[in-house]
Write a structure and sequence with these properties.
Blueprint: H1 15-32, E1 38-45, H2 52-66, E2 77-83, E3 87-91, H3 99-107, H4 119-129, E4 141-146
Length: 154
């Protein structure tokens, strides 16, 4: 049986990675400010191990992080993929330059409900997301946030 570090005790399992990610993002923003220009990628678990409420919470988390950045043609760009048994890019880095339009698009996501969680597939697609094919920029920092629930098929 795995043991949890002390700071995880009492926290829901799904929030562990989110808590660490939020701490890292807050550190970046405090050090650099909200005008930090990055290509910000998200990989969402769309498998059936994530129920509808957890998927809604994941989308809310993604939207909260997006709001921390200045989304614009010369500012932060967002890319987003969903993975389960397969993975697909849902947003390329050049799809949205308006925060409100991007937030609305994320809100309208429907979960694919794949039968299993293939973290390997999600990570492989993440490497593809951060490429010229999906409009990644060479001159900016890259941040990738991977959501997972620790149940995996690979």
């Amino acid at each position: 049986k795995q043991t949890q570090p002390d700071f995880y005790r009492g926290m829901p399992q799904a929030s562990h990675g989110i808590t660490i990610t939020v701490i890292l993002l807050i550190s970046i923003l405090l050090g650099c400010g909200s005008d930090t220009v990055v290509d910000l990628g998200f990989a969402l678990d769309g498998s059936n191990s994530i129920d509808a409420n957890e998927y809604r919470l994941t989308k809310d988390f993604v939207k909260d992080i997006i709001r921390m950045f200045n989304i614009s043609p010369s500012g932060t760009h967002v890319g987003l993929l969903e993975y389960a048994v397969r993975a697909s890019v849902r947003v390329s880095f050049d799809d949205f330059y308006d925060t409100d339009e991007l937030l609305e698009h994320v809100e309208d996501f429907e979960q694919s409900r794949g039968t299993a969680t293939s973290i390997g597939m999600g990570l492989k697609k993440t490497l593809q997301l951060f490429s010229k094919r999906y409009a990644m920029r060479d001159e900016v920092r890259l941040i990738q946030i991977v959501g997972l629930d620790c149940s995996k098929a690979d």
